[in-house]
Specification:
401 residues, alpha+beta
Length: 401
């Protein structure tokens, strides 16, 4: 019985020694810290900053307003010049529009006058043609009468009853009557030509051109109107161009006059670099946020452990005081003295950390934890080998609520 107790104690002693040695010799970090990248927000314009007071570490949502910057002294001289230039162009456009409207009224009057002239001229020519026809008919009758008198005078002259002088007079009268008839017919043909031309809108005469004065004046005004309409189109296009430039300049002035600084990530307020009411210049740093979407685990290990690690190796991380263990993978092996890689991280390494070998872990499970996902600065330990008591820890963790 005593031998059995001794053997049992020996087995327990050996098992305990195995567990202790296994736990101590397993790859583990000296320290591990939940870390994340920092993002710095800068002033987009110069001006006075209005920033509500917030405690450091305040949770910030992406797109949440952090500060407002206003500059009442923004330079808007160019905007005023453009507005003045557009006002002058609009005045010119109004004047051209009024001038064109006046020309249209004058053209309407001249058009009515030309139409009345044309219709009256046609009536005049028709009356002159009728009178010419009557004159031609009368001349034709006189010619027939003169020709009859000439025939009788010729007959009497041949008989010796009439004198030669009477015959010659009758001959002259007949020739005159013939010329009068030809002139009447010629004048009638001229009038008929003028009437046909007038009906086509062309007026022929000795005292004017092919169009009356009112129509000629209307053509001059139409040409002038075309020139003014071209100037109006150019001025209208200039007004539109100036309006676009004014809108662009106004947007630029508004951007320089006031700007809202928004959080670019979901994170925590890490550092305040400007105070409420302070005047800042464009590009000045205003606030730093820690990006909770970039949570990583930074740790240091002994050289013996570091030389056995490779990027992509699995690891486990447990926050001090917590029972949950988070799986992760090695994403970076920076070695010893890796101070420069922490320039944009929230938690800087200690001197003891830099004396050891730097390792970085990625843990999606930790990043997705609503409580510890952005618990920047919380410490814990990381393990790279399966330890003898790992099954017991997993069992206890599963049994805990």
């Amino acid at each position: 019985m005593r031998i059995a107790v001794i053997l049992l104690g020996l087995v327990i002693f050996i098992g305990a020694g195995f567990i202790i040695v296994g736990e101590q010799l397993s790859g583990a970090s000296a320290d591990a810290v939940i870390n994340a990248r920092l993002t710095t927000l800068q002033a987009p314009i110069s001006g006075e900053i209005a920033m509500p007071e917030r405690a450091l570490g305040t949770q910030m949502a992406a797109g949440e307003q952090i500060a407002r910057i206003s500059d009442p002294l923004v330079d808007d001289i160019r905007l005023e010049d453009l507005i003045l230039e557009r006002n002058l162009a609009e005045s010119l456009r109004t004047r051209l529009t009024d001038h064109i409207s006046a020309l249209n009224d004058s053209l309407e009057i001249l058009s009515d006058r030309a139409k009345r002239y044309g219709s009256e001229r046609i009536r005049q020519l028709e009356a002159e043609i009728e009178a010419s026809k009557s004159s031609a008919a009368a001349a034709e009758a006189r010619l027939e009468e003169a020709q009859g008198t000439l025939r009788r005078a010729q007959q009497l002259n041949e008989r010796g009853v009439s004198t030669t002088a009477a015959f010659d007079q009758a001959t002259a009268d007949a020739r005159v009557a013939e010329r009068v008839l030809e002139q009447s017919r010629s004048a009638m043909r001229v009038l008929e030509i003028q009437l046909a031309a007038a009906q086509d809108g062309v007026f022929l005469g000795d005292s004017y051109n092919d169009a009356p004065y009112s129509e000629q004046r209307a053509e001059e005004l139409i040409l002038k109107r075309s020139e003014l309409e071209a100037d109006l189109s150019e001025t209208t296009a200039r007004v539109a161009s100036l309006t676009e430039r004014i809108n662009a300049e106004r947007r630029r002035v508004n951007r320089l006059k006031e700007a809202i600084v928004l959080a670019n990530v979901k994170g925590r307020l890490w550092e305040m670099l400007a105070a409420d009411g302070e005047r800042v210049q464009r590009g000045d740093d205003i606030v730093r946020l820690v990006d909770c979407g970039s949570t990583i685990i930074t740790l240091s290990v002994a050289e013996s452990v570091y030389n056995r690690l490779e990027i992509g190796d699995a690891a486990n991380f447990r926050v001090n005081g917590e029972t949950n263990t988070y799986e992760g993978t090695i994403s970076r092996l920076a070695g010893s003295g890796a101070a420069t890689i922490y320039s944009n991280l929230a938690v800087a390494p200690s001197e003891e950390h830099l004396e050891r070998y730097d390792v970085t872990l990625l843990s999606p499970g930790l990043r997705g934890d609503p409580e510890l996902g952005c618990a920047i600065g919380r410490t814990g330990r990381a393990f790279f080998d399966r330890r003898p008591m790992e099954w017991l820890r997993n069992t206890v963790t599963s049994l805990l609520p």
